[in-house]
Design goal:
Layout: H1 2-20, H2 35-47, H3 60-73, H4 76-88, H5 91-95
Length: 96
């Protein structure tokens, strides 16, 4: 319960901060035009997992969730918030 609450709060704030930040100062959505590149950086930052630039292995679930939320809501901010929550509460995060 506490992790879910924390993740929702942290992710919403990170997305809002990134919207106002300069490109080099973003903390979550590093490359808004490249979802896979952003997911690679988040996975490295949160889970300590390096995914090579030429691979999408390990990104499928997060990418699918991002696309589903974006398709349902039409909101990039909600898509990144939901994806962030998913990654922040993933077992890999707890193990890292």
């Amino acid at each position: 319960k506490f992790m879910d609450d924390m993740a929702g709060d942290v992710c919403a704030k990170a997305v809002a901060r990134d919207n106002a930040a300069e490109p080099g100062d973003k903390v979550l959505v590093f490359e808004p035009e490249d979802v896979d590149a952003t997911l690679r950086r988040i996975k490295l930052k949160l889970h300590g997992l390096h995914i090579p630039d030429d691979s999408t292995e390990g990104l499928e679930d997060a990418r699918g969730l991002y696309e589903a939320i974006l398709g349902d809501t039409g909101s990039v901010d909600l898509a990144w918030t939901g994806t962030c929550i998913f990654l922040l509460t993933a077992p890999e995060m707890m193990a890292y």
